[in-house]
Write a structure and sequence with these properties.
By secondary structure, the protein is mainly β. The chain has a single domain (14-135), classed as Metal Binding Protein, Guanine Nucleotide Exchange Factor, Chain A (Beta Complex), CATH 2.170.150.20. The chain is built from 2 helices and 9 strands. The chain has helices at 14-20, 23-29, and strands at residues 49-53, 59-62, 66-67, 75-76, 85-90, 97-102, 108-113, 123-126, 131-135. The strands form 2 sheets. Strands 3-4-8-7-6-5 form a 6-stranded antiparallel beta sheet, with no helix packed on it. It has a 3-stranded antiparallel beta sheet with strand order 2-1-9, with no helix packed on it.
Length: 137
């Protein structure tokens, strides 16, 4: 995945995002925040369905790619498509990590690490407040 996505970008003003999102969703998705481990939604949920972006409703992850990484955040080994998420180099907090953002609205979702299970070996560690869950898909 690259720094650019092939889908059309959704652009809104800060005021529009603040009107649409809860304060916690805004802090995480627009200000690149994170929720404390084991406190956000979905970290311990394994229902069948589809996880969508809280900002634009774009599909992000399927429940059949979710696994218990023991880290306290929802974790997935694969996004729904290469365009669903985009990667950015993140050097904040004295670390070098790969940030994951929504490919449609650029919402901060979390980070991806190379310590996940087969078949990809990836662990998409995602803030639960950056997503909404659609059961049964």
């Amino acid at each position: 995945m690259s720094e650019t996505a092939t889908t059309a970008k959704i652009h809104k003003t800060d005021a529009e995002w603040k009107e649409q999102l809860t304060p916690e969703q805004y802090r995480i998705t627009r200000q690149h925040g994170t929720e404390r481990a084991f406190t956000g939604p979905y970290w311990d949920s394994f229902e069948t369905g589809l996880y969508r972006c809280v900002g634009c409703n774009a599909p992000l992850f399927r429940s059949d790619t979710k696994f218990d990484a023991g880290c306290g955040w929802p974790s997935y080994f694969e996004a729904v498509s290469p365009e669903a998420v985009i990667e950015h180099r993140d050097t904040s907090h004295g670390m070098v990590r790969t940030e994951i953002r929504c490919g449609s609205c650029d919402a901060h979702l979390g980070h991806v690490f190379p310590d996940g299970p087969p078949p990809t070996g990836l662990r998409y560690c995602i803030n639960g407040h950056s997503m909404v869950f659609e059961p049964g898909k």
